[in-house]
Task: structure prediction
Amino acid sequence: GGARLLGPAEIRDLADLLGVTPTKKLGQNFVIDANTVRRIVKTAGVQAGEQVVEIGPGLGSLTLGLTEAGASVIAVEIDGRLAEQLPKTVSLMQPDAALEVVHQDALRILELPGAPVRLVANLPYNISVPVLLHFLEHFPSIHAGIVMVQAEVGFRIAALPGSKVYGSPSVKAAWYGDWRTAGTVSRQVFWPVPNVDSVLVGFERRTDAIGTEAERLATFALVDGAFQQRRKMLRQSLSGVLGDSATASAAMEAAGVKPTARGEELTVHDFLAIARASHLTD
Ligand code: SAM
Result:
């Protein structure tokens, strides 16, 4: 039997065949290392028979790792040439694989052909945070996942309050669940080789949402305001969203947050409490 995963030679052959020159704009850095693919699939804890959604399958490196593990994969790809080729590549290498390819912009997709329980992806780096938040927001069937992102972004997503890199992506991610980094990945496993190393980030969704949709929107607006000007005190940066500094102070006090607090110190629950206290959610 032939190879079941793609290596460097297969990746180049496929790119040649399709006339694909990887573009920066679409974050096209393809994994050329089967060990990395198997490591991601293993870290993700993919179970046979499970439905998994992949964002940006590209030439199929990770997709084949997921189908090899017995997952039934829904793959969302924006590049038409890649979306068209993927089913052919996969059926050639793994005839029994279960795969559905959706040729769409993952940032805009509102419906999937199925209810995937897991998200596993090597995300396009320029949109990794928004696309991750979009999927968590719109596809509640996803209860866990592993994504590969630019290292700096991954550490931000998984950061806890008090960390130097804690910011708006950390708080928004925490709205949905618990996050952890799960190992770095060398830039050398990609073609073309990117300028930065990557990190795997895993999450488990909360069993119960911490607030309503209106509360999420209000909380996210506060978070955006709070981290726009990092050096300011929170009551100053929130006065933009809440009208004035007195209103901001009152909402913080009612939420049990000390008046001198900085955004970097607050948990998602603190931000939610301020949103509730400020009646932004009414
Ligand atoms: N999964 C493949 C791998 O590991 O080799 C490719 C990963 S590459 C980092 C990102 C992929 O996302 C590319 O195939 C790119 O075309 C695709 N992509 C970029 N923007 C997208 C979008 N908005 N929606 C869906 N796919 C997108």
About this structure: Strands lie at 30-31, 51-55, 72-77, 98-103, 118-122, 144-150, 177-185, 190-191, 198-205. The pocket of S-adenosylmethionine is lined by residues 26-31, 55-58, 61-62, 76-79, 82, 105-107, 122, 124, 127 (CB under 6 Å). The mean pLDDT is 95. The chain is about 40% helix and 20% strand.
